[in-house]
Amino acid sequence: MSYSTGLYLLCFLPCTALLYYLIPLRFRFLVLLASSFLFYLLGDGSLPFFLLLSTLIVYFAALLMDRLGDGEKKKKKRFLWGSILLLFGLLFFFKYYNFFSRNVNLLLERLSSGRKLPILSLLLPMGISFYTLQAASYLIDVSRGKYPADHNFGRFLLYMCFFPHIMEGPIARYDQLGAQVYEGHRLSYENITGGLQLILWGLFKKLVIADRANMFVNTVFDNWQNYHGFYVLAAALLYTLQLYAEFSGCMDIAAGSAQLFGIRLAENFRRPFSSRSINEFWQRWHISLGSWLRDYVFYGVSLSRPFKHLIQWARKRLPAHLAKWFPVTCALFLVWFGNGLWHGASWKYIFYGLYYFFLLSLGTLLEPLLRNVPGRLGIDKNSLVYRGFQRIRTFSIVVIGMLLFRAASLKTGLKMIFSIFRGFSLSVFADGSIFKMGCDGADLIVLSAGLIIMAAAGHLKERGKDPRREIAALPLPVRWAIYYSGIFSVLVLGAYGAGYAAVDFIYAHF
C-alpha cells in the first residue's frame, strides 16, 4: 500500500486517526501498533515476519548489553557485533545475494570452472534497508551508554514498525521517536490542520511534479540509444527534480501522517538545491542517512584504535596538510562506499558513492590552494553572482551523479554522459520534437508551473519564512482559497488515471 493511494489517504489513515482519538489515552499506542502491522500486510505480506525477527534480535541483545557492567566491555562488544552481523546478514542476503552470485558466476565462467552459485531471484522485503539502520543505531547507542535499553517490548516494537516512516524513512533514532510513538497524544487542531497541509503538499510534489516528469524521464532512459544532446541533458535534469519532488514529497506525507497523531518526525530535506558546495548538499539531502553514516561509520572508524595508529603513521611520514587529509579520507571512503552500496546491489550505485567521495576528498586536498583564488581574482565571495555560480556548479555536479544513479547500468550511464555533447541543439523546441517525449505541451506547462511553485516555497523557507504559517495567518477566505486550489491541483492536474501509468515511490525499492 503506497502513501499516495486512495486506500491509504481516504480509508486507512482516517480510520486509524479516528480510532486513535476514540480510545483512552494510555491504550492509543495499541492502535498505532495494530495499524502498522495491517499496513505491512496490505503492502508486503512478508514484512511483518522479518520486522518482528529483527526487533526480537535487537530487543534481547540490547537487554543483555544493558546488564553487563563496565568491566565486561569485551562481552558487550561481542553481543553488539553479533547482533549487528545478524541484522546486516539478513539485509545483505535479500538485497545483495543476487548481485554477488551473478558476478561470482561470471568470474567462474571466465576461469572455465563448471561450478556456479544458484540465483534465487529473492524479493526484497519493503523498508528493510531503513529499519535495519534504525535497529543498528539503537544497539550502538545502548552499547555506548547514550540511554538504557527499553524493557517495554511493546514500546520498542512500535518504535521499530511505526508505519509513516517505514517505507522511505526518515531513519529515526530511539531518543527522537521512542517515547513519542508510545505516549498517547490528545486531539489538537494544530496537529490535524498541520498534518493535512503537509500531506497535501507532499501529494502535490509527488503527483503533479514527480509523476509527470517521470513520463519524459522514462522515455529517454528506457530508450537511451535513440537520444543524445539536449534530450539526455533534459532527462537528467528532470530526473534530479523528479527524485527530489518525490522523495521529499514522501517525507512530507509521512511527516503529515505522523503529525495527525501528535508525533513529529525528523527533517530529512532542507532545500538541498540552495547548496553552494557538495558537502553542504549532502548535509541537506537525505539528512537522516547522512547523519547515520557520519555518527556510526565515520566517527566509529575515526575513534577506533587502528585509525589512531594510522594518524600517528601519517604525522611521522607525511607533510602537515597531507597528514590531516589522508586519515580522514580513508574514513570518508568507507562512508561513501557504504552510501553507494546501501542504495542497491549494482556497480552503478557503488560508483555513485565513490563519485562523491572523489569530489569531496579532492576538494579537501586542494582547499588550501583554492581558498584565496576568488580574492586574487577580485571576486567578492558574498556577492550574488558568485553565490549563484556556486549553486549552479553544485547543481550541475548533482545532475551528473543523478544521471549515473538513474541509468540502467554504470556502462550505460557513462555512455549517456558522453552523448550529451553529441549533436547538442536547442532546435528541439522549434521543431516540436521535445513535446513528443511522453509529455505534450500541456504536461510541460503544468510541470513547469509546479516546479516554480516548489522553488518559490523553498526560497521562502531558505529566507527563514514558513509558508504554512504564512498561509495560516491569512484571512479565512484567502486561506481556504489556497487550500482548495491545492486540493483541486492534485485532483485535476495530478499525473494519474487514464493515460498515465501508476508510479511507485522510487526510494521504497531501496
Describe what this molecule looks like in 3D.
It contains 21 helices and no strands. The chain is mainly alpha-helical. It is globular and about 75 Å long. The protein has two domains: 161 residues, no CATH class; 305 residues, no CATH class. The mean pLDDT is 87.
Q: SSE layout and pairings?
A:
Blueprint: H1 6-22, H2 28-43, H3 47-67, H4 73-110, H5 128-144, H6 153-161, H7 174-182, H8 189-222, H9 230-259, H10 278-284, H11 287-302, H12 305-317, H13 320-343, H14 347-370, H15 373-376, H16 384-406, H17 410-419, H18 427-430, H19 441-462, H20 467-472, H21 476-493
For the sheet with most strands, the description reads:
none
- Radius of gyration (Å): 25 Å
Share of residues in helices: over 70%
Shape: globular
Number of strands: 0
Distance between the termini: 16 Å
Number of helical stretches of at least 4 residues: 21
Oligomer: single chain
- The assigned structural class equals mainly alpha
How many distinct domains?
A: 2
How much of the sequence is in beta strands?
under 5%
Low-pLDDT segments, ≥5 res: none
Quick check: average pLDDT? 87
SSE order: HHHHHHHHHHHHHHHHHHHHH
